[in-house]
Amino acid sequence: MNAAAAEGKININTASAVEFQTLKGIGETIAQRIIDYRETNGLFKATDEIKNTKGVGNKIFENIKDQITVGSTVN
Q1: What CATH number does residue 35 fall under?
Q2: DSSP secondary structure string, the chain?
Q3: Looking at the domain assignment, is residue 74 inside a domain?
C-alpha cells in the first residue's frame, strides 16, 4: 500500500475509473474523462490540474480536493 492510500487519499495519477467514482460528484463519464485527460496530457503535477478535465469545475474540485493527491512525482 502506498502512502497516499494509507492516508485515505486517491492518487489521481494512478486511480482507476472505479476509484474516481468513490469521490463526490464523479460518475462514470467524468471518471473516464479524467483518465483520458491523464493519458493524453501526462501525469498531473498538482491536484487542481484535475479541473482541466471537462466536467470537473470548481464545485467538484472543492468537494474532492482533500481526498486526492498526485503522489510523489518520481521521473
Answers
A1: 1.10.150.320
A2: --HHHHTT-EETTT--HHHHTTSTT--HHHHHHHHHHHHHH---SSGGGGGGSTT--HHHHHHHGGGEE------
A3: no
User: What grid cell was written down for 37?
Assistant: 485527460
Report the first-to-last Cα separation within the chain, whole angstroms. Answer: 20
Evaluate whether residue 65 is within a structural domain.
yes
Residue 75 lies in a domain: no
Domain, as residue range, for 41: 3-69
**For residue range 6-62, what is the model confidence (pLDDT) as tens digits?**
468 999 999 999 999 999 999 999 999 999 999 999 999 999 999 999 999 999 999
